[in-house]
Design a protein that fits this description.
By secondary structure, chain A is an alpha/beta fold. Chain A is built from twelve helices and nine strands. The first copy, chain A, has two domains: about 5-105 and about 270-285, ATPase, nucleotide binding domain (Nucleotidyltransferase, domain 5, 2-Layer Sandwich); about 110-265, Nucleotidyltransferase, domain 5. In chain A, a hairpin with a 2-residue loop joins strand 7 (about 120-130) and strand 8 (about 130-135). In chain A, helix 4 crosses helix 12 (about 270-285), helix 5 crosses helix 6 (about 170-180) and helix 9 (about 200-210) packs across helix 10. Chains A, B: This is Glucosamine kinase.
Chain lengths: ~290, ~290
């Protein structure tokens, strides 16, 4: 009999789980943050997620223990105790990876290509068969170029530079300064801002860039420059298909140069789909 | 009779006080951090500083109360209660400013010119008689280009980019990666690093740049580019004298282009000298 498949996608801002029954019925639930660096919180949130999933899918406890499961967790590579986590969750046979692997697998499914994942953070990955090479994903303090957090921080930085006479005073720069009650308010905000706080500005930056605002456009141009350089490192032939993933990835499409735009392929699925796919593969390889 | 003059320079990493007696005798003491945003700590540290100063200079309590005093404090412009601070310190007649003003006054004394102040943070200021115009000083999250903290953060960021194939793998990049036990160690450091932690790398970056390391040189070049742009905004004639101040400022001299190097003038004094000078001016204007 085909097994029950379970996929879990746990990230710093929330987690999702999906269950695929042998009859093809799929159930999804969402829950709280699950970053391995906050281990207790992550464990508790994923346990709650599994309870919710079983209830919604009508799954018995013994079915859960026998299910084929893959868990993609932010930061799991840093943690030597991935196996411990699986055991603590009552899923001793579950396989685990970081959420970048499930994102790449979800986006490309069985195909090969480059995934440009842009949400609050960013990374690039190239998949060739079983081999995956990654670039970036180092976090906002030192990297995450082109990401939502990077875009937001850059917008505030450029707004301050416009006060100094070192950047153009565009309509968008004025709007930001007004919103934060001037330069001093922007600086106050920056003293406590988390990446997600900066990323909250991204939709407005994309909108302003779409309307032709020079400051917003310069942010997008720099972001695209980073993505181009990263794509070139991953594939110097300039022919590999490119998939824009993550909450913001697809929004970059309109700002890419023509040759890159022609290489775009749609994402096959999300990181959660990737986790389910990896659970299915584990099932096939099982003796 | 000429009054006793007292100058105080309070910053985020430490504070200094100086007293100039009518006979020309000068006494200096140093103490703990004094940033207005941590008001209680700042008050306590400056009170301790004043006690130490009186003891060392042989100053009586009544002489202190009658002294002419100027206090330069980091962040004081944000604080509406500057007068309250002076009263709380038992120096109700003291004048106050932020520490950028005392830095500029110390560096240029009675002269005019541009001050480029580079320590853990950075700012630029131009003084023309009584008028001072400033650029930068917004903090590391959104600015402080060319500063020690900015240099250190950039070095770590470039070291990670060298792992990604997006920056040259220089000897200095390898040294940094070894020191932090690889890319993951660099990222871990960045999650908790304060500006002063990044700035601690600055001396080594300057040394590597002096030895011709491409990565270190690229950091200095970008820093110089920012300083050049700022200087051009403050003086478009390209003739105004420029003074490199702060702990790192003078170290930039060797990396400046020839035309800018020719405009350099030595700093007349420190921010503490600036505070004493402002106290002396207050004394002269007193009825």
């Amino acid at each position: 009999m085909r097994p029950v498949l379970i996929g879990i996608d746990g990230g710093g801002s929330g987690s999702r789980a999906a269950c695929l029954l042998p009859d093809g019925h799929r159930t999804e639930v969402t829950g709280g943050p699950a970053n391995v660096s906050l281990r207790e919180e992550a464990l508790n949130n994923i346990k709650a997620l599994l309870v919710a999933l079983c209830t919604k899918a009508g799954l018995q406890r013994e079915q859960l223990a026998e299910a084929k499961c893959h868990i993609g967790l932010a930061g799991v590579l840093e943690d030597q105790g991935a196996k411990d986590i699986a055991v603590a969750l009552g899923l001793p046979k579950a396989t685990m990876s970081d959420d970048q692997i499930t994102t790449i697998t979800g986006a490309l499914a069985d195909g090969d290509g480059i995934v440009v994942a842009i949400g609050t953070g960013s990374f690039l990955g190239r998949k060739q068969g079983e081999h995956i090479r990654r670039i970036g994903g180092w976090g906002l303090a030192l990297g995450d170029e082109a990401s939502g957090a990077w875009m937001g921080r850059r917008a505030l930085s450029l707004a301050l530079k416009s006060c100094d006479g070192l950047a153009p005073v565009t309509a968008f720069a004025r709007r930001i300064l007004d919103r934060f009650d001037g330069a001093a308010g922007v600086v106050r905000f920056s003293l406590r801002a988390a990446p997600s706080d900066y990323a909250a500005l991204a939709p407005e930056i994309l909108q302003a860039a779409g309307q032709g605002d020079d400051m917003a456009l310069s942010i997008l141009r720099d972001g695209v420059g980073y993505l181009q350089a990263g794509i070139a490192v991953l594939d110097d032939t300039g022919t590999c298909p490119v998939c824009l993933a993550g909450g913001l990835g697809p929004h970059y499409a309109g700002f890419l140069p023509h040759d890159l735009k022609e290489r775009l392929i749609p994402a096959a699925g999300t990181a959660l789909d990737g986790a389910l796919l990896m659970a299915a593969r584990n099932a096939e390889f099982d003796p």
